[in-house]
Amino acid sequence: MKKLSFSTLLTTSLMTLSATLGVAFSSATLAAETLNVYTYDAFASDWGPGPKIKANFEKECGCELNFVALDSSVGILSRAQFEGKSSQADVLLGLDLNLMEAAKKSGLLAEHNVNTSAVTIAGGWKDKVFVPFDQGNFAFIYNSETLKNPPTSLKEIVDNQNLRVIYQDPRTSTPGLGLLLWVKSVYGDGAADAWGRLASHTVTVTKSWSDAYGLFLKGEADVVLSYTTSPAYHIVAEGVTKYKAAQASEGLYPQIEVAAMMKSAPNPELAKRFMQFILQPGFQSTVATGNWMLPVVKLNEALPAAFDSALQPTKVLTLPASDVAKNRKAWVNEWLNATTR
Amino acid sequence: MLSFRAIKGLLPALLGVVFFLLMGAASLAALLRYSDISSWSEYLYEPYLWRVVRFSLWQALLSSGVSLLIAIPVASCLIHRQFRGRAILLQLFAVSMVVPTIVAILGLVVVYGRTGWLSQIFGLQIPLYGLVGILLAHVFFNMPLAVRLLLQGYDLIPSGQWRQASQLGFSRWSAFRLIEWHYMKKVLPGAFVLIFMLCFSSFAVVLSLGGGPKSSTLEVAIYQALRFDFDLNKASFLSLLQVTICTLFAVVVYRIAPINQQDVSVLAVKSYPVKDSFLAKGADCMALLCVLVLVIPPFLAIFDPIFSPLFLTTLLSSGLWQAVLVSLKIALPAAIISLSLGVCFVVLARFCMTRQYLSVLPSKLEHLGNMILMVPGLVIATGLFLWLRDLGWGFQSSYWIVVWVNAVMALPFVLRALMPVLYQQERRFRNLYLSLGIQSWSRWCLEWPLIRASVAQAFGYALLLSLGDMGVIALFGSQGLVSLPLYLFQLIGSYRLEEGACVAVVLISLCLILFYCSSRLIGGKTVSGKMTGGNFHVNH
């Protein structure tokens, strides 16, 4: 009899076991005609626009659209970077204007070749890599039944120590990053002090929009950072009118959410088709009542009346994209240092 | 001299250890290749970084200090008093160490959270998110651990000393001062270092209860650097910093108090009653009350939802069973790999033990296995991932990386369970085996009945650790790779606590079932599924 040592036996049994377990999570389980779209959780959730878009796109492509929901919008890009060329992502959906430069630098994104002449965004759309899919303005939302004197400016939100505030982390979430730039454009060099004053009455800084909004609805805060169109959701979907967006006399900061396809997309043909589809009614008509943002092309049917009552900005503030790309890390550090003192 | 035959028998064990080292080296090399060391100096000027370091140290010091402070009177009380429920309490202490971190966090949120029991029943609002929550969680985990470590110290007190104390009419205080403290002093530094390390590198607790950037630890900063900035450079720098701090801390404490309690001999200690007093009764009641308030409610909170109708609907969700399957697919191979690695280490160590010229090796090997406690699992995983990604196996590899890193993370605990008993075998019977010419496989066959209980324990630990892991999976988890703890973490993150509690019950039940099965199948009938071994802990 051949002498076997115990460890050899262990190794062989291990091999056989792992073979029998037969774990193949990845590409093997995905059908050939599947389009993988990385997006943030709220977009892909049952109450988000994801399911409708999936149904509409699958009708015309004869494929399967698979949303991979990630827990934060900034995390979409880093996830793709983390996976690198081996990523199964075809399309990244849910970055925004302020992340475009950084995302292009990663070298992972391909040009889309979509005709963007129909885009209604002020100043048109020229970018060759990104396609916009919705737009809106950031605003703080409050409950008008419990908050009798709502703030009318960003300065008031920063300085009113009795106001319990929740906002999102600018390192992980695009609304959080939006607030960072909003504060920067209003306060300039005084941003650090403003953050310090805001920190003393901030309930918490959450990882994503859905965490923050969920906490606000539970009554944990007086105001939460969201969008001017958020009250429309409560009116249309719930018939509730008590939630309102607070006006900011300094002006509002806009957000444009964008999508791009990956160079290494396993399914480049489908990815291209989806990029085209983003500006078509099948996608754009779901934006308003699914993602509660405004569409970026003109649609035939009018938006629900609730959107007409949405807050209009007195002034639109924007910082140049090149400045944002150059200073984002420094500004985030400034925010970190000011809020953790 | 080494004979060729002996080497040949050792080959698999050597290969195992070498493989372990190679994987570690590969992961480090991959990380360093992606980082630019010359730019590291600028991180040193970030005030936020030092705030994170300060907070990491501060919370770890507080957590370990509070855990030990509560543990001392509790241990003393458990030694001197026999009361109804004492055995159950000791069992609970053993169990609270193997509760998956995320489950305990859920229990704490249900009890202390904004809409938790405390605020519902007493209208008390505890600021759970931040230092308070982190402390509560760490004390919940580590106070029982500290008590068990201290009780091991008590086992060393000879009966004679108790007898004398009883005859001389010592009060509880004098007995503590003159006898107990003397033995506690031997155990405390080791316990302090262990608990400090566990709290310093705690991840899931801080991630869930940190509540924003204010209370962040190095481990969480590493996670964020990887997950949100994809900044490998920063991640490598931070992990190096973490390993440095941990090493320095351990070296300093071990310098002050050398530790050598590999094999605690448990004598049958007979204890004699010392004089009781009203004051002593009061102190003991206080200590027990402390325990009851800290440890019991989260447990009750976890098992609360069994009676709710929601429990059934949660049980029917496909996502849950998907997660159960993924968890099993991760935990079983991880435990097998961990056990094989452990056996490789121990075989090699005991081979060197009896040979003069190699006698330095065993302790080195053990340290090598324990080093893992200091190195952030996220970093090992990331390094491996990058390495495999460049070889073009990126997407498929993430599952195996989770398995491997879980296996490696469990290694210290596996070694702790295996080493003493295998060393003992070697000391007792080596010459007998040699004289009879019994080797390798036949020797294992003879040893098996004697060591199977420890093997079962080692395997069970590795299994539970991998089942409850919330570290690596947080980074690599994606669709199709969501383990139960991650599923639970997502539910807690979206404030679906009721559902989370149901999932937690499933997770705990799974842990208990698997632990029981492994101790019955591997350990044989002699071992009831008791979780012994005071130096075991799940808190990564």
TrEMBL record, chain A:
The keyword Transport applies. GO terms for cellular component: outer membrane-bounded periplasmic space. SUPFAM superfamilies: Periplasmic binding protein-like II. InterPro entries: SBP, SBP_1_CS, ThiB, ThiB-like. Residues 1-31 form the signal peptide. Gene3D superfamilies: Periplasmic binding protein-like II (3.40.190.10). Pfam families: SBP_bac_1 (PF01547). One of its GO terms (biological process) is transmembrane transport. Keywords: Periplasm, Signal, Transport. It is found in: Periplasm. PROSITE patterns: SBP_BACTERIAL_1. This is Thiamine-binding periplasmic protein. The lineage of its organism: Bacteria, Pseudomonadati, Pseudomonadota, Gammaproteobacteria, Oceanospirillales.
UniProtKB/TrEMBL annotation, chain B:
GO terms for biological process: thiamine transport. Belongs to the binding-protein-dependent transport system permease family. Its main location: membrane. GO terms for molecular function: transmembrane transporter activity. It comes from Marinomonas primoryensis. Pfam families: BPD_transp_1. Residues 53-253, 324-518 form the ABC transmembrane type-1 domain. Gene3D superfamilies: MetI-like (1.10.3720.10). The chain crosses the membrane at residues 53-75, 87-111, 117-141, 187-209, 237-257, 278-300, 320-348, 368-387, 399-423, 470-489, 501-522. This is Thiamine transport system permease protein ThiP. Keywords: Cell inner membrane, Cell membrane, Membrane, Repeat, Transmembrane, Transmembrane helix, Transport. The complex is composed of two ATP-binding proteins (ThiQ), two transmembrane proteins (ThiP) and a solute-binding protein (ThiB). NCBIfam families: thiP (TIGR01253). It is found in: Cell inner membrane; Cell membrane. It comes from the Bacteria. InterPro entries: MetI-like, MetI-like_sf, ThiP_ABC_transpt. CDD domains: TM_PBP2 (cd06261). One of its GO terms (cellular component) is plasma membrane. It is a multi-pass membrane protein.
